[in-house]
Amino acid sequence: MRPADTTPAITYHVDSINHTEQQSTCKVPSSLHSVAAAINISYAMHNRTNGSTVSLINGSMAGKNLFAVSIYPARKIEFWERPSWQELFEFAKANMDLLLKPDHALGTWFNDWECVHVVDVVVCISDRDAALGLGLRAEKEAVFDIEARREIPIPLPHQRFNTNQHAGGAQ
Q: Which of 117, 135, 137 is nearest to 125 (CA)?
């Protein structure tokens, strides 16, 4: 008997099950490599400017005519101190299902009001009104204009319409 006849690990035929498993296994390191590259960008930008918007697919969104909207409240995490590279990496790995979708990105910013660093999954939209509408539906206070590097407040529903009525008393 030859070793090839007795050792199942040595085969010369295509085993579609093992071939599929090998292909998916081979994709993991390249996916983790692209996540690590995106985290390198996000980590550097957040430490330099207190914020970043980085797509795992397209890289940094800085300077692009896009509006970032946070619409996944259950995914948001906050840190009292700047998030470490490892914390950003773990967040990205845990949220790959969303971060690999088109127009989605890892968003980081410093919330001045609560003095916390926020890490979240954001949607990047080129239409300002659509971004504001999405933010309103998600009950957000603002969307972020990536190109201008500024927040755009979302008017509350009762602020959108001027009824010329006062809250009480005679006019």
A: 135
Q: How far apart are CA 134 and CA 123, in angstroms?
A: 9
Q: What is the pLDDT of residues 126-155, one digit of tens each?
A: 999 999 999 999 999 999 999 999 999 998
Radius of gyration of the chain, Cα coordinates, nearest whole angstrom: 23
Distance CA 144, CA 109 (A): 10
- The owner of tokens 């990536």 is 146
- Phi and psi torsions of 96, nearest 5°: -60, -35
Q: How confident is the model at residue 110 (pLDDT cuts 50, 70, 90)?
A: very high
Backbone angles phi, psi at 166, to 5 degrees: -95, 160
Tell me the CA distances in angstroms from 20 to 10, 17, 23, 32, 138, one per residue in order: 17, 5, 5, 19, 39
Tokens of 26: 């081979």
